[in-house]
Amino acid sequence: MRLTPFFILISLLLLSLPSLVFSGKKADAVLVDKSDAKLYLMQQGQSYAAYPVTFGANPKGHKQQQGDERTPEGSYLLDYKNANSAYYKSIHISYPNAQDSANARKRGVNPGGAIMIHGQTNGWEWAAPLAQLFNWTNGCIALQNHHMDIVWEAVDPGTPIKIQP
Predict the structure, then answer these.
(1) What is the pTM of this model?
(2) Is 8 part of a structural domain of the chain?
(3) Which of 6-20, 56-70, 113-127 has the lowest mean pLDDT?
(4) Under a CB-based contact definition with an 8 Å cutoff, are residues 72 and 63 in contact?
(5) Could you tell me the residue range of the domain that residue 137 belongs to?
(6) What is the per-residue pLDDT across 9-30, written as a single tens digit (0 to 9) for each?
């Protein structure tokens, strides 16, 4: 089958459709469901968009310490954005909170940190379809870059995020 310019144009338009549909819509909360491997953009308690995500390489359970490759569970804030990270855009999750730090102190371990929502590793965007089939981060929440663009625009610093098992 020959790819015609019309087919290519239609394909590009369909790929950009999510960003066109949700452009400008702000989320007042983000919900991440680890069991569904989905990130939901929320407005007034209702989901208006959902995107597939991957997690830390050891996804079951709440993050306990640095290096455990778990993604935290609980309520946090998306407290700042980084357009120049090692990944395609990143939004910082306020892990560890006071309880996480206290629990780690009791156990004599470092709770870890630098937990982000981010796109693909810079330079490896081409591998996203394969990478998103596996939990590959060190505890972060990873999206394909075109989904990260939508989340980036929808979320302002200070937006609450709930990560549930």
Answers:
(1) 0.82
(2) no
(3) 6-20
(4) yes
(5) 25-164
(6) 444 444 444 444 445 799 999 9
